[in-house]
Design brief:
Layout lengths: L20 H8 L3 E5 L2 E4 L1 H20 L3 E2 L5 E3 H7 L1 H4 L6 E3 L5 E4 L4 H11 L8 E10 L14 E11 L2 H21 L4 E5 L10 E7 L5 E6 L5 E3 L22 E4 L6 H8 L7 E8 L2 E8 L6 H8 L4 E3 L2 H8 L14 E5 L8 E4 L5 E6 L9 E3 L17 E16 L1 H5 L3 E3 L5 E3 L1 E8 H11 L1 E2 L2 E2 L10 E5 L5 H16 L4 E3 L6 H11 L3 E5 L1 H5 L2 E6 L5 E5 L2 H15 L1
Parallel strand pairs: 3-7, 15-17, 17-20, 27-28, 27-29
Antiparallel strand pairs: 1-2, 4-6, 5-6, 7-8, 8-24, 9-10, 10-21, 11-12, 11-21, 13-19, 14-15, 14-16, 18-19, 21-24, 22-23, 25-26, 29-30, 30-31
Helix pairs in contact: 1-11, 2-6, 2-11
The structure holds one RNA strand of 77 nucleotides.
RNA sequence: CGGGGCGUGGCGCAGUCUGGUAGCGUAUCUGAAUGGGGUUCAGAGGGUCGGUGGUUCAAAUCCACUCGCCCCGACCA
């Protein structure tokens, strides 16, 4: 491609509404332009990168035995009513009506459509397993899109769905996808981690997120120093502390204290001169409509995902003021375990607490020297809090570390959630009707590209890994008016293009500096500089974008080709 | 949805408080010189100041309404 013909608007200045590097660089390098909030157009350069990634994804999905399909983006409401998600999905689901007033949505994901397709065509275990995937545009009406294509409303996603006849088969399907994902992200040259994730109330036993490590990531990743345990912060399990024998002889007399208008942990600490570790927080939730009080240490945070999983409930939200009043008999801010009219569950950290402070279930009152057993009964202990740096790993007991990550892929075991709801059944060997066991597997295409830039850039711009680079080599004649230089460049360009290289010829009548800046900005891995001094010696320079290393190579098509081939294979 | 900020040539911004000829940088076009890391000089084109309504002799500027965008939070199968 000749640069002068390319629709590639690069900008020198940083667009004012871009916060993170990948967003800034994608705009500056002319890869994307915003149409409206959370909705982007890909320009030729950006789309080339997208297609590179899609190609890698296709190769690995096909290798793993999945077959490509292409499903509709407009989906009828009835399907979503069948799965129950028309009610539950919320406002992220963009709904609309057609001219006949029939209801539709734009697909934010495709479980319903694929399940409908498969249930109509697959009838027997003989036709299983199956894994179907597509690369397609999704629409999720995000409450707050941000960071360019990182969290946007319309985005490209690869989604695959597996259907198996039994649990062991589903395991195999899951494992295949897991492995394919590892290969994909490795081929893209990404530093990533597969972490255990919460599967939420989507059901199923297991879920992994593929996280690209980056400080700008929206997700917190927890990993163990001692073993290979790694998990999303939401999911990260904390080792149960060893329960010491509690000596009730040490219990101090319980004492109510007036704490006017003292509600938050900080206020209680200040007022009573205690540390947060000596306080027990009581949070009242409404779990499927039933009140549940969750006790955690003052310096800990309740993890709602863990509570939800422990209770096995569908909905969990902090109770409203009315419920709090009903359950505790006091306004918000003074809840405690003593005499509370709700199911009581406590985080493990409470196991070894004695003589602690908690709310008295009475306005402007707290209680000192509270002890479990003596002052209130408590049977249910579980891991209910969010991990903090240094917490002990549930697997090996070593301290856990924190890092930031970008979720680029997610593999899920769905189990029979959709196949049961939508009657995707097959006949097993014994002729019995069974629901298929499903898995779903997603990769955010645009997000992966953005994540790649987060990991591969410098002051001057993007530094593409060879596998995703929109062009692998750019030829820069230092002065196009110099016939000799230009012809030499043209000859190289013709030869390399013919030999299948993805090559860009910067034929613009610009100063060398401008061309160098643009080449660096758009991140082409290899640059051939055709300048007067070297050409006079019968040579050209080839510079690596990543290392900055400059090699001098004979100005000869074959020599250059050989050099490039070596370089490319080394960096692939 | 709550809080904050912004909307002025393609991009980045000043001007708004205190109403009075729409400006700067960059980009673009033409010409000339220059030609290995965003070159210099000369000239030119390009703006309903987000929109609507109001106040006023006069509105980018004041008032009301409205639309859009960004940030923080809430929310998020």
């Amino acid at each position: 491609m000749q640069y002068s013909q390319l629709f590639l608007p690069t900008t020198r200045e940083i667009p004012s509404d871009a916060e993170i590097v990948s967003h800034q660089l994608m705009l500056r390098a002319g890869m994307i332009r915003k149409l409206t909030s959370g909705i982007y157009s890909y320009l030729p350069l950006g789309y080339r990168v997208i297609r590179k990634l899609e190609q890698i994804v296709r190769e690995e999905m096909n290798r793993a035995g999945a077959q490509e399909v292409f499903l509709p983006t407009v989906q009828p409401a009835e399907l979503w009513r069948e799965s129950g998600r028309w009610q539950h999905y919320g406002r992220e689901l963009l709904r609309f009506r057609d001219r006949h007033e029939r209801e539709y949505c734009l697909g934010p994901t495709h479980e319903e459509v694929i399940t409908d397709l498969v249930r109509n065509e697959i009838k027997t275990y003989r036709q299983l397993p199956r894994n179907l995937y597509q690369i397609q545009t999704k629409f999720r009406d995000e409450i707050r899109p941000r960071f360019g294509v990182m969290r946007c409303r319309e985005f490209g996603m690869k989604d695959a769905y597996s259907f198996d006849a039994d649990e062991p088969g589903a395991e195999v399907s899951y494992g295949r996808m897991f492995e394919a994902y590892c290969r994909i992200f490795a081929r893209c040259g990404l530093r990533y981690r597969a972490v255990e994730a919460d599967s939420g109330n989507i059901g199923g036993s297991f879920s992994h997120e593929f996280m690209v490590m980056a400080d700008s990531g929206e997700d917190a990743v927890v990993f163990c120093e001692g073993c290979d345990y790694a998990a999303n912060l939401e999911k990260a399990e904390i080792a149960k502390p060893e329960a010491r024998k509690i000596d009730s002889a040490r219990f101090l007399p319980r004492e109510e204290v007036e704490t006017p208008d003292v509600k938050t942990i900080e206020e209680v600490c200040r007022f009573l001169s205690v540390k947060p570790e000596e306080i027990v927080k009581t949070l009242v939730f409404s779990a499927d409509g039933m009140p549940v009080a969750v006790l955690v240490r003052g310096d800990h945070e309740v993890n709602e995902a863990k509570v939800r999983n422990y209770l096995g409930c569908d909905s969990l939200e902090l109770a409203d003021d009315d419920t709090i009043l009903k359950v505790t008999g006091s306004p918000r801010g003074f809840a405690g375990a003593i005499g509370i009219r709700a199911r009581l569950i406590a985080d493990h950290a409470l196991l070894n607490m004695t003589n602690f402070v908690m709310g008295a279930n009475r306005r402007d009152t707290h209680v000192r020297n509270v002890n479990m057993g003596r002052d209130f009964p408590l049977r249910e202990f579980a891991d209910l809090r969010t991990a903090k740096p240094g917490d002990a790993c549930a697997r090996c007991g070593k301290p856990m570390q924190f890092a930031r990550g970008i979720e680029v892929g997610h593999v899920f075991k769905l189990g029979t959630k959709y196949s049961k709801a939508m009657r995707a059944l097959f006949l097993d060997r014994e002729g019995r009707e069974q629901p298929m066991i499903m898995g779903c597997y997603g990769i955010g295409i645009g997000r992966t590209v953005a994540a790649c830039i987060e990991q591969n850039h410098d002051e001057a711009g993007i530094v593409w890994p060879m596998a995703l680079a929109p062009y692998t080599v750019i030829i820069t004649p230092v002065n196009v008016k110099d016939e000799k230089l230009f012809q030499a460049s043209q000859r190289l360009y013709d030869h390399l293009s013919e030999r299948g290289f993805e090559v860009l010829l910067d034929d613009r009548d610009e100063r060398a500096g401008v061309k160098f800046m643009d080449a660096d900005l758009i991140g082409v891995p290899l640059r051939i500089t055709v300048g007067p001094k070297r050409v006079a010696e019968g040579k050209v320079e080839i510079k690596s974008r990543k290392s900055g290393e400059v090699s001098v190579v004979a100005l000869d098509e074959r020599e250059v080709e050989t050099f490039l081939r070596e370089r490319i294979s080394k960096e692939m």
